[in-house]
């Protein structure tokens, strides 16, 4: 088992979180390696374990480009890396829009088989659930579809995604499953970033919350469900630097008010350089139910001291929270992962 001792010169960790959370992607070669590494390192601190979104899935939604390849006409201009050629249409001519399967179900079901086998062997704690992290359709449409087709294609893609989720929930027992909705582009829209993040729907906040609530109705009650609220991690940079946690808290509260089932956890990011009260102040208005776990992305690799300072700043406004990184780690190195695990294991209480 993995063990870590706090350095003698480390600042005192006055807050001892009971649980840690991994958003989804992990910089390891395959699901089995992810399960073994995290299961051994944090055996009593993980309630949910993702498969690491390894190989082609490591970079968030980028692997979903395959869904739109049957209809190059609708694909966004920046996809020139795929050498896509749009068909030349005559005036008044239309092309049927066809989409390929998302394959989220194939990936999840294959990884669950490994998860179950390793749990039987005692590698994974029997009380740990298998976590499937799924980006919302807004994230995929913004990345791959030309703006003039977004409103038409979004419900088509959503139907395919929900079809995959139905199969996941059929093949994986509810008591073993946790599903996380990843919402990132939504916050670029709320911040008015523009460009490829320009919303194709009016009443931006209401449109975002309505979509998230609609998606939540498709998760079975006995399946755990959570939300990863995010400001992006493209080239380890945010879409925009948030002034504070205002939009994160607003969306979390709106979800709690409108959801028809329980929310088991909400994850929110914390930028590395934000240890000030101003960033965390909106947390005083957070109105989640007692059973909903809050995870704050305060952990940064190679930054134990900063992690502890961010924890202390957050505690002024929310007393009980688990710890996580800001975002997934799929675009990081294995050495970064080692450091993150050391910090988590050093300050968390299992």
Structure description:
- The structure is a single chain.
- α4 crosses α5.
- An eight-stranded parallel sheet has the order 1-8-7-6-5-4-3-2.
- It is of the alpha/beta class and 350 residues long.
- The longest helix has 25 residues.
- The N terminus is likely disordered.
- The radius of gyration is 20 Å and the shape is globular.
- It is built from eleven helices and eight strands.
- The two termini are 13 Å apart.
Walk me through the topology.
Blueprint: E1 20-21, H1 31-41, E2 48-50, H2 65-68, H3 104-120, E3 129-135, H4 137-144, H5 147-171, E4 177-183, H6 185-190, H7 204-216, E5 224-229, H8 246-258, E6 265-269, H9 277-280, E7 293-299, H10 304-315, E8 322-325, H11 334-347
Parallel strand pairs: 1-8, 2-3, 3-4, 4-5, 5-6, 6-7, 7-8
Helix pairs in contact: 1-3, 3-5, 4-5, 7-8
């Amino acid at each position: 088992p993995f063990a870590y001792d706090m350095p003698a010169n480390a600042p005192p960790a006055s807050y001892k979180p009971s649980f840690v959370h991994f958003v989804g992607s992990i910089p390891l070669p395959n699901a089995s390696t992810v399960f073994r590494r995290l299961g051994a390192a944090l055996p009593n601190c993980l309630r949910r374990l993702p498969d690491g979104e390894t190989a082609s899935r490591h970079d968030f939604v980028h692997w979903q480009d395959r869904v739109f390849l049957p209809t190059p006409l609708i694909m966004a201009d920046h996809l020139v890396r795929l050498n896509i050629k749009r068909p030349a249409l005559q005036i008044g001519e239309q092309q049927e829009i066809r989409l390929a399967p998302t394959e989220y179900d194939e990936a999840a079901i294959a990884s669950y088989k490994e998860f179950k086998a390793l749990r039987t062997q005692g590698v994974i704690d029997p009380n740990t659930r298998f976590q499937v992290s799924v980006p919302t359709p807004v994230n995929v449409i913004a990345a791959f579809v030309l703006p003039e087709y977004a409103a038409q294609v979004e419900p088509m893609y959503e139907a395919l995604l929900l079809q995959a989720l139905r199969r996941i929930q059929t093949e994986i027992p509810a008591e073993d499953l946790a599903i996380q909705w990843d919402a990132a582009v939504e916050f670029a829209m709320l911040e008015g970033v523009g460009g490829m993040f320009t919303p194709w729907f009016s009443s931006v906040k209401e449109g975002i919350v309505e979509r998230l609530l609609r998606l939540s109705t498709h998760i079975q009650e006995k399946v755990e469900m959570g939300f990863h609220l995010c400001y992006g991690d493209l080239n380890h940079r945010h879409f925009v630097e948030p002034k504070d946690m205002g939009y994160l808290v607003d969306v979390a509260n709106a979800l709690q008010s409108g959801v028809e089932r329980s929310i088991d956890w909400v994850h929110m990011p914390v930028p590395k350089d934000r240890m000030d009260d101003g960033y965390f102040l909106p947390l005083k208005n957070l109105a989640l139910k007692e059973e909903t776990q809050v995870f704050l992305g305060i952990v940064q690799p190679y930054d134990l001291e900063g992690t502890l300072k961010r924890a202390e700043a957050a505690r002024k406004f929310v007393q009980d929270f688990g710890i996580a990184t800001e975002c997934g780690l799929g675009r990081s190195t294995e050495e970064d992962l080692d450091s993150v695990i050391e910090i988590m294991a050093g300050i968390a209480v299992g």
